[in-house]
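Let's practice the habit of predicting before peeking. Look at the sequence and jot down your guess about where helices and strands might fall. Then scroll down.
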Amino acid sequence: MRRLLLALLIAATPAAAQWRPDGPITFVSPYAPGGADAFMRTIGEFFSQQLGQPLAVVNRDGGSGVVGMRSVASAAPDGRTLGMTPMTPVVVQPHMVRNLGIDPTSFAPVCGTNENVLGIVVRTETPIRTLPELVAAGRARAMTYGSAGPNSLPFLGVWRIQRATGVEFTHIAYRGDPPHLVELLGGRLDFSTTVVASASEFIQAGRMRLIGVFSHGRHPDFPDVPTAREQGIDALQFSQVGIYAPRGTPDAVLTRYEQLCREALETEAVRRIAAQLRVVIRYMPRADFGAMIAGEYEAYRGILRDLGVQPE
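Done guessing? Here is the structure:
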């Protein structure tokens, strides 16, 4: 009788829940090692525990995330290679580089994990406290700002401010957030556009002031700072981070990872590291995440054309 019940339970278990990889898993981070890796590693540890296989987080940086994501796209679609990235290399970079080798069709989306809330920071010594005040200052004098690179999502947030208000700022591009934040602190920039988490220590230490965010809602760690839209400026710039598998990965594998993604984001370990890093968890199911990526890819085609960007 016991054997019969066990057989019935196994038969009733979805195939996706039974899937396990037949070897170690590679979890690709397409950027240089940094603080966000800890969040990714904690998710990876949960995957490893549940799937019974070792998992290695591998940094393969270059090309604004393209190098690492290209390695994911070219991997065998067997569930043993995943990548985790903000949207940039998947929806923006394909419009900027000819024959890039990847676009949304190169991947099987697994889930959305978190949002990189983007915002504007200034030095605390400046009298500027709001985005309208920044715009007014920009009309009165020439102002420079730093970002993690041309046509990066934070850069596009400022572009949206300029488009909405008619003000013009001078952009200075850097490789990643730390260099331009240091330049801002040194007084060599008027403001910076950044992932809020990258500047959070400076904000909390009172060395920088966050004056607005580009998201749908306020950053939960800085609830007193209104969004751009709340300040009367139509500048929404969303940055969803998510997990991708190679195109052709079986549906059962994707469903299993989608389930594990949702469960991982609910664990105490992942939520604890997210709180430490000021990562805003935002789970998206596979279908919703895939639809959003496809829509953003088409949207950036027009945005970059309006910016005069020609594929290199």
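How did you do? DSSP finds twelve helices and eleven strands in the chain.
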